[in-house]
Amino acid sequence: MKRRALLLPFAAALLACTGLGTDSGDSAAPPEAGVHQTTACRQYLACADAAGKGNVAKLEEQYGENGSCWQTTKAAMEACDQECDAALSDLEAQYGPGCDGTDTGTTDTGDTGTTDTGVNTDCAILDGYWGFTFDYAGDECGLGSYPNPWYATSTCNGEGSFDLVFDNLGVALPCSSSGSAFSCELNTGGAVIIVDGSSTSKKAAATGEFSFDLGACLTTGGFDAEKN
Q1: CA–CA distance from 35 to each of 15, 20, 83, 178 (Å)?
Q2: What residues have CB less than 8 Å from 81, skipping those under 6 apart?
Q3: Which pLDDT value is given to residue 14?
Q4: Taken in order 131, 135, 137, 140, is the CA torsion positive or negative?
Q5: What is the dihedral sign for C-alpha 6, 7, 9, 13?
Q6: What is the pTM for the complete model shown?
Q7: What is the tens place of the pLDDT at every residue in 184-205?
Q8: Is 123-227 a domain of CATH 2.40.128.20?
């Protein structure tokens, strides 16, 4: 997925402070903000590959990270997501969860009406595209005038370590997770970005607190996030 540089004044100041920037080779952004490869399509491709399907390369052209599904509108994205979800269900019915005979990383508590309470330090389940809605407690940097949500990609590095990259910043925040709790911090060039929170048992939503400190200004508050 190509990063989209929204170039908020905060982002511009951050880049000026740190010397970091987005890839100059990136092409034009999709016409609608927030269009991205969905979790269902990423899981479907992984499942098809694990099952040994011979059409994975063709599927990648449509549903892959840079596939045609993510080059237009949210309506097209949602249609592709539904196609992937249905296809994934069909494959898992044939080959089992993950299509390779292994479980998905969550702990089965049985049909008791309770939610999944298994502790999982493997951050792979956090992988995906998230929408963050910020609630500003103090906003010296003026970020509250810019619309929610802010979108971010979470990519697991293994052993509870993952990177969080906000589309409108274009720099990676190093993060760690243990069970439901996670902590992200980037400290570079005098700018300090902190995002700390806790995810739900199914790792599809999260809440927490954030701090954006540029030295010249400070913005803090809380957030709600949902995996798209």
Answers
A1: 24, 24, 16, 29
A2: 38, 40, 41
A3: 56
A4: positive
A5: positive
A6: 0.56
A7: 999 988 889 999 999 876 678 8
A8: yes
